[in-house]
Amino acid sequence: MSPVSDRKNISVPAEETEKQKEYSQLVREIIGQRYAEPPKAFVHTYGCQGNVADGERLEGMLEEMGYRLVNELDGADLVLYNTCAIREHAEDRVFGNVGAFKQQKTVNRDMRILLCGCMMQQEWVVEKIKKSYPFVDIVFGTHVMHRLPEFLYTSLSRGKKVREFPEHDGVIVEELPIHRDSDFKAWVPIMYGCNNFCTYCIVPYVRGRERSREPKAIIAEVKQLVAQGYKEITLLGQNVNSYGKNPDYGMNFAALLRELNAIEGDFIIRFMTSHPKDCTYELLDTMAACKKVAKHLHLPFQSGSNRVLGEMNRRYTREKYLDLLHYAYSVMPELSVTSDVIVGFPGETYEEFLETVSLVEEAKFTSMYTFIFSPRNGTKAAQMPDPVSREEKGKWFKELLDAQEKIAAVRTASMVGKTYRVLCESVSKGGLIEGRTQGNIIIEFPAETSVIGSFRDVKVTESLTWILRGELQ
User: Fold this and answer.
1) Which is it for strands 442-445 and 433-436: parallel, antiparallel or unpaired?
2) What is the pLDDT, as a whole number, of residue 2?
3) CATH fold for the domain made of 10-164
4) How far from each other are the two terminal CA atoms of the chain, in whole angstroms?
5) Coil, helix or strand for 65?
6) Which segments of 332-424 does DSSP mark as H helices, in order?
7) Helix, strand, or coil here: 333?
8) How far apart are CA 467 and CA 440, in angstroms?
9) What is the 3-state secondary structure (H, E, C) of 158-224?
10) Which terminus of the chain is more solvent-facing, meaning fewer CB atoms within 10 Å of its CB: N or C?
């Protein structure tokens, strides 16, 4: 596959989106004839925030076709699983859940089962579904999500199975209906796909090559969200730092942040995920200068060993990563940094693992997403010799978690007595309100539920390892 450079090649033509609107109306007519009341649709999304954003668009299309979204699987007339291919565990859960539908399909022939997303871009997965789960009605990959109305029309009108997972670089589709899961937090994809081909990662194969949305489309979407009262806008991309390269819009990610920061309104901007090889001083200076950009940076480092980073094809060094961090802290002393790390990459030695531990101790991360290496079919790393046992990797994993836990405890303890402006998000299991600081740290505090969806000042009164307790000011 070649890098995307021509915006005409990635934008779905207006005629195609109009055609899907026509299919949507046809589906609405069919279900209006078959059901006395709107049929129920259950959508479950696995995986990353990008998948969640896709799920909101899938839900939007289903609503437009006349379905009623429900949170319970029981009694659903349509079930859609939006899948993830990053971890083996997520794939196993999908297969287990789909297998349970065989009996239900026997009882309710009109029930529709749909599988889409990253898993469905893998040939071996599609073959397994054909052989083991033939009762699944519709299977489609990431590049044709916008054609859901067409697929449903084919299934409902002709009773035909649909299998659609084209191999191409991917597309950009604007103006899809969106069912947002929150009234005050919004996901805004700014780009899709990845050109990095890290040896352990399946994303470029299932999401296609990097392709950025038009700046004017992103700015218009954010302006509309702010006008609707949204308080937190999270910009999404497999590598947001590469925004604007494919195609070349003459605007990089830092420039986009400055444009969004200039929008009038009381809101904060978050983004993920950043790749260290494309993280620049310009971006860090922009974060420091823009008041609406949260002082939180998610910057995956994956390994502290230069040799292992080379085997991962990460294209930066330990020294480059730490240099970025030191500069970031110098221009934003209050910055909160989170990261991803893989334990037990094929061929990694214990001594190299200790280099990861030492990087963690120097970096002082707020928190980390830590994973034991999981081989992905179709990636280079899956073919590499991997002599260290899972049991041994588990010991390393615990050692790393213990090191990070001590760092996190010191950080949260240093926040006691200080006051932070937080976005009130939900009610905790203990009945307290959960808010989140700019640094993405949870604070729990007693308050009325009416504060949810608003900014409040909260003074920290107690620190736990990963979260804080406080009181409204």
Assistant:
1) antiparallel
2) 43
3) Rossmann fold (3.40.50)
4) 55
5) coil
6) 350-363, 390-413
7) coil
8) 10
9) HCCCEEECCCCCCCECCCCCCCCCCCCEEEEECEECCCCCCCCCCHHHHHCCCEECCHHHHHHHHHH
10) C
- Report whether 241 contacts 253 (CB < 8 A): yes
H or E stretch at 32: helix 14-34
Q: What residues in the chain have per-residue pLDDT under 50?
A: 1-5
pLDDT in tens, 230-270: 999 999 999 999 999 998 999 999 999 999 999 999 999 99
What Rg do the C-alpha atoms of the chain give, in angstroms?
23
Residue-level length of the chain = 473
Q: Which candidate, 276, 140, 126, 134, places its Cα nearest to that of 196?
A: 276
Which positions ≥6 away from 276 have C-beta within 8 Å?
299, 300, 301, 314, 316, 320, 321, 324
Residues 324 and 333: their CA atoms lie apart, in Å, by 13
* Number of neighbours of residue 318 by Cβ within 10 angstroms: 19
Q: Which CATH superfamily is domain 419-472 in?
A: Nucleic acid-binding proteins (2.40.50.140)
The strands making up 268-272's β-sheet, listed across from edge to edge, are 185-189, 232-236, 268-272
Q: Where are the domains of the chain?
A: 10-164, 185-413, 419-472
Evaluate whether 10-164 and 185-413 have a shared fold: no
185-413, what's its fold?
pyruvate-formate lyase- activating enzyme (3.80.30)
Task: Provide the token pair at 187.
Answer: 């996901």
Q: Is there a contact between 137 and 155 (Cβ–Cβ < 8 Å)?
A: yes
pLDDT at residue 7, rounded to an integer: 55
Looking at residue 4, its pLDDT comes to 47
